Structure to design on (417 residues):
């Protein structure tokens, strides 16, 4: 019945900062926003090498004239790419189980495409997969995307496909004409595909050698990440040649992890560690988040940040006040630091601590500070330095879940300007 709304509203209000206090409010006003969702790209490949070769030479260069968030976490669960999309469009958390795109695709939302439409933006998604995968056709329509260029919009042959479908280089190349034909300004989200498990790539598309470990998955990951890096580089060239570059900002984000815990042994070898601890596992959930604004220098930002923050950050860049929104993210160029990044399993990262699986770690050193695990049956474990924040994190996740399970936005009238 919506009785929970006042409390949730108050909580969401407290997180907000004044748009005027945002360092970059309005710098992308009236500009196109080109968002690249990079399949399975994790932060550990950035500025890293394999067999002596850079894994992502283009992204490494791009970071030098962009805003690069080096402590940015994905917050996805079983809905994988669709969960990351849900986070960035709504600044709400995906669900602890299942894919919210499927289970609550018909809810009332107040998503970015709907909001920016009021400010003259056209919105689209470009992704060379079947339109009903992850129930995207239903959800996109519901949250206000104007167009979805799905697999039917692309020329797909055996020669230009690998693994899950159309290769990223072909995908970007065939997409330029759609960008050119769209009304301006637009917000367009590209979802890449080649760097998807099991990381298949033909030999002629591989510029670097695989890694050599007992994990075929980790070994193959590096050449396919490099392939995506090259595809993005070619896309930037095409953007410049087509004249779209100057009037756009380009945002790049990894959607979720590509290498699961199953490959910890190989991963520890690659990272030159004795083992992958629960602390390391959390730190491996970082994905790149890069905001490239032509003409601006940018910098590396070390503050903690996450996918939940993308919507308020982008809205403010576009000069759109998100005052009437209900969300759980923060403008990453705003004055306040985040208190915590909540992962969907209840693990969290604060400025000082990393908490996961009942254990509290020092964020800087990875040192175990304490464990809440009970050693005697029936006797609760000890509190740790992380314990006070644990309930705040649970509260936030629970508010978000209540909105979705109760379809609470039905009862709320967002006063769009
Ligand atoms: C499929 C693509 C990959 O369309 O988004 O899906 P994933 O398995 O990463 O969620
Ligand atoms: Mn994905």
């Amino acid at each position: 019945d919506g009785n929970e709304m006042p409390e949730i509203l108050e909580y969401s209000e407290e997180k907000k900062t004044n748009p005027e206090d945002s360092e970059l409010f309005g710098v992308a006003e009236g500009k196109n926003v080109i968002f690249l969702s990079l399949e399975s790209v994790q932060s550990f490949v950035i500025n890293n090498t394999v067999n002596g070769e850079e894994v992502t030479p283009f992204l490494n260069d791009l970071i030098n004239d962009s805003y690069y968030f080096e402590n940015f976490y994905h917050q996805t669960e079983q809905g994988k790419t669709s969960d990351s999309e849900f986070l960035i469009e709504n600044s709400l958390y995906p669900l602890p189980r299942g894919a919210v795109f499927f289970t609550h695709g018909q809810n009332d939302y107040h998503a970015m495409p709907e909001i920016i439409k009021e400010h003259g933006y056209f919105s689209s998604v470009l992704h060379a997969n079947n339109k009903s995968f992850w129930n995207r056709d239903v959800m996109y329509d519901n949250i206000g995307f104007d167009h979805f260029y799905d697999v039917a919009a692309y020329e797909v042959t055996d020669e230009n496909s690998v693994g899950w479908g159309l290769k990223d280089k072909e995908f970007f190349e065939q997409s330029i004409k759609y960008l050119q034909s769209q009304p301006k300004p637009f917000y367009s989200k590209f979802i890449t595909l080649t760097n998807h498990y099991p990381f298949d790539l033909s030999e002629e598309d591989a510029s670097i050698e695989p890694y050599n470990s007992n994990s075929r998955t980790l070994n193959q990951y590096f050449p396919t990440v490099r392939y995506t890096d090259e595809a993005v580089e070619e896309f930037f060239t095409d953007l410049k040649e087509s004249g779209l570059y100057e009037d756009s900002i380009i945002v790049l984000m990894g959607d979720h992890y590509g290498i699961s815990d199953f490959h910890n042994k190989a991963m520890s070898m690659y990272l030159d560690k004795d083992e992958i601890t629960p602390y390391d596992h959390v730190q491996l959930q970082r994905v790149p988040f890069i905001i490239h604004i032509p003409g601006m220098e940018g910098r590396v930002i070390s503050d903690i940040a996450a996918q939940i923050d993308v919507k308020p950050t982008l809205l403010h860049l576009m000069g759109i006040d998100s005052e009437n929104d209900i969300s759980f993210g923060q403008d990453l160029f705003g004055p306040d630091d985040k208190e915590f990044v909540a992962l969907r399993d209840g693990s969290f990262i604060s400025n000082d601590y990393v908490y996961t699986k009942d254990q509290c770690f020092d964020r800087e050193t990875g040192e175990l500070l304490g464990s809440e695990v009970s050693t005697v049956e029936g006797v609760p474990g000890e509190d740790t330095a992380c314990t006070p924040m644990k309930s705040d994190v649970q509260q936030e996740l629970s508010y978000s879940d209540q909105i979705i399970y109760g379809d609470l936005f039905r009862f709320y009238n967002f006063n769009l300007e």
Observations:
- The mean pLDDT is 96.
- DSSP finds twelve helices and 19 strands in the chain.
